[in-house]
Task: structure prediction
Amino acid sequence: MARMPAAYRPTRLRFQRLSPDEQDAALLAFHDRMIARRTVRHFSPEPVPDSLIDRAIAVAGTAPSGANMQPWRFVVVRDPEVKRRIREAAETEELAFYERRATDEWLEALAPLGTDWRKDFLEVAPSLIVVFRIDYAVSHDDTGAERRMKHYYVSESVGIACGFLLAALHVAGLATLTHTPSPMGFLASTLGRPKNEKPYLLVPVGFPAAGATVPDITKKPLEEIRVRV
Result:
């Protein structure tokens, strides 16, 4: 029988078994914390410690991934000039979306949220985290020839990692926004990422501006989103 790679030899699972009361209490506390999370579009320019961003990204890096390929990259942008270029490119795409690409039905769905093509939060927020999906790994052999290793379930894996990231940032007391300008190719060129990395999500991070408001929305109740079979 072939030997397993050293990195994949079985290791003892570290698992903390909680009592039923402890399980309920932990989930209730987490739910109460997460239900207060809101998408924020009005940020304070107050700086956020690098340590908080790094710890949140470290949490995201614990997410499960297809074949443990961990096909993600998190680029933290704080440079004002780079943020300005990102905003300008994003607003160009967003203007085209709102004026030409979006269907009437889509615009009608967005109308209650009060969004438009203007994205000033991309400059005001002290940090941007740009998440990239890595479709394949690149290495070079002794001759310098490029070799590729395909990654599996990339979108699913990166999506889970982004969920971890948003939860971690919220638990750290930070506000976030999930932004997906379409198309997003300008992020790769602006940030100098290699061709095997594709933009997936843009997350402004910071503290809410004084007096920040959010749309008065509700979430679907458990009975509407859960089905038991």
